[in-house]
Design the sequence.
């Protein structure tokens, strides 16, 4: 399947559909917040309660994951490991609780601002290389939970300036999940230096 260049209305239609095509279609899109814009180069798809044990919504609705249940096009922001924020784009029909984790991106606007937030980073390709780094570069935190991404609010998602050729989209296992970790629902632009390094989940051994 190919994804022709679309406007915001076309992007909204894409996000309202199944999560896997939506995830692939988000590659190349631009996310802006806090004076920085990134071009999305890596994503992960998560289904809702229908058989995806890696999804935050697998066991049903909670105060944390409520926004995942729709409508599509809103931001699901969550805190992890007691120190990092991650941002997802809610997708699918209302009530199905699907979302796409934005794993990595290329900073295309506001590089100096991103550097000021990521002072330990030496290379620009590492500014948003990983889901927590992407949020840090954009200044995304809990205050943006539930925000509509296709409007003119403080966090904005826009279609790709140029469509990503289908032949350049790679797929593989998701990262750091304890369930369904071999499901190939991580998608990235092949050859992109901003894509994060894959590490297969290794369960902790019990003594």
Sequence:
């Amino acid at each position: 399947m190919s994804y022709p260049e679309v406007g915001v209305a076309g992007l909204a239609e894409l996000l309202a559909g199944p999560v896997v095509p939506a995830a692939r279609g988000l590659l190349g899109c631009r996310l802006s917040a806090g004076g920085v814009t990134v071009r999305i180069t890596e994503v992960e798809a998560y289904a809702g309660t229908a058989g995806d044990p890696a999804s935050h919504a697998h066991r049903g609705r909670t105060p944390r994951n409520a926004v995942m249940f729709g409508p599509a096009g809103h931001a699901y922001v969550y805190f992890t490991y007691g120190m990092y924020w991650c941002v997802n784009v809610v997708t699918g029909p209302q009530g199905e609780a699907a979302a796409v984790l934005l794993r990595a991106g290329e900073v295309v606007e506001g590089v100096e601002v991103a550097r000021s937030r990521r002072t330990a980073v030496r290379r620009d390709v590492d500014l948003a290389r990983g889901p927590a780094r992407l949020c840090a570069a954009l200044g995304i935190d809990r205050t943006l939970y539930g925000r509509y991404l296709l409007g003119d609010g403080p966090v904005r998602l826009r279609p790709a300036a140029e469509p990503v050729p289908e032949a350049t989209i790679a797929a593989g296992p998701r990262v750091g999940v304890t369930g369904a970790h071999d499901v190939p629902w991580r998608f990235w632009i092949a050859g992109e230096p901003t894509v994060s390094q894959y590490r297969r989940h290794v369960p902790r051994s019990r003594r």
Observations:
- The first strand starts at residue 30 and ends at 33.
- Residues 75 and 146 are 5 Å apart (CA to CA).
